[in-house]
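Quick check before the chapter quiz. The format below is the same one you will see on the exam, so make sure you can read both the input and the output lines.
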Amino acid sequence: MAKDSSIDADRIRAAIEKLGRQRAVDKLLELRKVRSNPALATDPDYRRTFNGYYRMRQKSSEFYQHFFSMLQNAASADFPPTLGTILQELFNKTGQKHLSFGSKMLATITDDAVLFDRNLGAFFGVRSSPLIRRDWLGEALQRYEQVRGGIQRFTQRPDWPEMRALFDQAFPNAAHLPESRKADLIIWAAHDEL
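Here is the expected output.
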C-alpha cells in the first residue's frame, strides 16, 4: 500500500508543471523512437539524453556499452524480452544488479512495462535498496510487481480521470501514452517534490 496515496489537485498541477519545465514528456517521446530506429541506441546524443533523463550517471564506459547494446538488441527483437531476462543479462555482462535501469530499458521499448525508481518505490512503500540477497532476481521482480500493482490501483482511483485529463491537456502530443506511463510520470514528479 502506498505510504502517501494522497495526491491532491495542487500537487497534481505542480507535478504536471514540473514535467513541462523539465521537458520530461518530450524527452520520453524522443527516447521511445528507438522502437522504430534501434540504431539510435548507438548515437552519443541519444545516449546522453537517456542517461540524463533517467539519471544514469557515474557508470563505467563498459557498463554503458553493454547497456546500450542490450537496448538496441531489445528494440530490434520481434518481441521484447522479459524484465527477468534483461536483469539477468545485465548482471551477466556487468556484474551489477539494476532493477531501476532494467525497468527503464524495458519501458523504453514496450508500453507493457512500468518504471521502477526511488520515487515510485517510496510512494508505494516498496524498498529501493540495493539487491543483495542470494535470490536477488526474485526480489527484484517482486518489487517490480508491487510497483506495477500500485500503479494499476492508482489508475483506478476516482480522481484518476481528472489527473489524466490534466496530463493530456498539458501534453497533447503524449495523449496516446498508456495510462500506466502517465501515472508513473505524475507520481514521480509529485513525489519528487516532497
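If your answer matched, good. The radius of gyration is 16 Å.
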